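This section describes the prediction task in plain terms. A model, or a person checking by hand, is given the sequence of a single protein chain and must write out its three-dimensional structure as a string of tokens. No templates, partner chains or ligands are provided. The sample shown here is typical of the held-out split.
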Amino acid sequence: MDHELRRDRLRKSMRRVGIEALLVTDFVNVTYLTGFTGDDSYLLVREDGEVLLTDGRYTTQLEEECPDLDLAVRKPGASMVQLVIRVLRSSEIGRLGLEADSMTIGLEDKISDKLPEMALVPTTGLVEKQRLIKDKEEIELLRKAIRQAEKAFAVVRASIVPEMTEKQVANELEYQCRKFGAKQAGFPSIVAVGSRSALPHATPDEHRIAEDGFVLIDWGACEGLYRSDLTRVLATDKISPKFTRIYKVVLEAQTKAIHAVRPGVLCQDVDAVARGVIARAGYGRRFTHNLGHGLGIQVHEAPRLAAKNQTVLKPGMVVTVEPGIYLPGWGGIRIEDDVLVTRSGHEVMTHAPKKLEEMIVE
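The expected answer:
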């Protein structure tokens, strides 16, 4: 990863908004700009360089992950606030940008109190806008995370038996992701049997696979900090006409929405395609979440495929497309794939089977 290039691009954004420096307090943004994977550290980006504000716990880790980065290390007993004030005072900054979405009011007040001559400028999305477009290295890590997740799912699917619980399936998925090279699961897996699948973010518990005729599985893997995200619904018993009808509606909605993904299209318009299919089938009120979200260092990041989101899709963006229908007391169907926006249209990066007949577990 070319973290220096990322910081140089950030400096251009800083100049556009008229700030001399930016105090990056979002730990995910710190990682994106430096490669440092620890927490409790801030990054001060100036026009003439940058310094990472951290503590002694991370000294060895920083030498391994970003050896060329200037450090300001707080001493035992000193607070992060004291370190921030000391570094800012020595930097002679006139206009300091703050990350409004992560900066605490308490820290801002302390900076203002100790450095009243410094203008504090709230900013939003300076780093996040860069993260929207993935470079070749990021896309390759996402591909690896997808392959790891798909291999893990194939093994787990082949080994599912009626006596297994949701928690056992989730645990096995994470184990298999690691076995195929992932650092960890991309997020806590969702495994929901039957009526529990009507909860879009159900937490796996002791319900057994045999308790109903289908199970929703939402899982992913993490490779080099980048995360995949997929959802499939497996039929574990004879499928009913209702299951067949709803599954086909969701699959049609997803297929048409994916087809709409291309450069220049608004996120809200892709969402509208899927929502229209589901509404025409009579389930509009049962599609209760956005169509999708961006993927990267975080499993949920910009851009959002959502109503009223006028973000324009651009090459290099990676999004999930995951329509769903949820019927309390019966269950839910959601199908999710990871899609790359390309110069000529899109690429479906995930390849796990999803045709209805492929979802039947013998």
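For orientation: The longest strand covers residues 49-55.
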